Amino acid sequence: MKFEIISQAEGRVCSLYTLRAIDSSESEFELAIKEWANTSSPEKIRRFLRIISRSVDISGFHSIDFTPESDTGKEEIYRFNNTGQFRFYLLFLNGMNILVPGGKIKNTRSWQEDPGLKKYITILKEINCIINDYNIPHGYLTQIEIDINERGVITNKTEIIKNYENQL
């Protein structure tokens, strides 16, 4: 499936990026909020969105709002705290900018056991690899289409890297 990385929330301090399917008008973050609304209280969702708003406009994203979720420790993959059984995983792109590909209810002991949650972690690992291993700025990734399969693997990674290198 083809996706693009879009800015979901921009502020004076930082930005929150997410994915949007090319054939969709809603981002994966918006779809996740709607799904979460089916199982959570409106107040909890408003509190979460206030944290996002405060972070992008005033304070930036701080580790107090997150729990590390990387299985190797080298990726900067975290999940938001205080969202109950719903999981929003994120990747620190640089300094203050983050990418949140979406979210899902956690029904298993760990994200490794849940194919849906594992997909989000895999997407974040793949993007982290492109940015860090190939020195491709995240801004470049907001200008292109990204093909992601059902397991979260970016299937056009080689093409992305070659196209970026040809621009240099």
What is this entry, summarized?
It is built from 5 helices and 8 strands. It is of the alpha+beta class and 168 residues long. It is globular and about 50 Å long.
Keywords:
168 residues, alpha+beta, 5 helices, globular
Q: Indicate the overall shape.
A: globular
- Spans of at least 5 consecutive residues with low confidence: none
**Beta-strand proportion:** 15-25%
On the 0-100 scale, what is the average pLDDT?
A: 90
Total helices: the number is 5
Largest sheet, in brief, is:
8 strands, mixed
Oligomer: single chain
Q: What's the total number of strands?
A: 8
**What is the terminal separation in angstroms?**
28 Å
Quickly give the structural class. alpha+beta
Helix-strand pattern, N to C?
A: EEHHEEEEEHHEH
Helical amount: 25-40%
Specify Rg, calculated over alpha carbons.
Answer: 15 Å
Describe the model.
The protein contains five helices and eight strands. The protein has helices at residues 28-37, 42-59, 115-133, 138-141, 157-167; strands at residues 2-10, 15-21, 66-68, 77-80, 86-94, 97-99, 103-105, 145-147. Strands 1, 2, 3, 4, 5, 6, 7 and 8 form an eight-stranded mixed beta sheet that branches. The mean pLDDT is 90.
